[in-house]
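Researcher: For the annotation table, I need structure tokens for CcmD family protein. Please keep the output clean. Sequence:
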Amino acid sequence: MKKYIVILLLLISFSLKAQDKIGITDADYQNSDVQMADGMRSEGKIYVLVAIIGIVLGGILVYVIQTDKKISGLEEKFKN
């Protein structure tokens, strides 16, 4: 019974579309105007955003390194 429900949901998901397909035109390739980035760059906010992203990624990296060291220590204790 569970297998049939999974198959039914799978078939239903194949028929659903998240978005309509829109054709790409030549104007799309020529569009180099990103208004949000230009506005943030002109106001100096883009540097704040880059700094925050760097801090978050740095924090994640430090956390992963510390966790790896703790796991390595536990593995050594477990072997002995």
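Researcher: And a one-line annotation?
Model: The chain has a mean pLDDT of 84.
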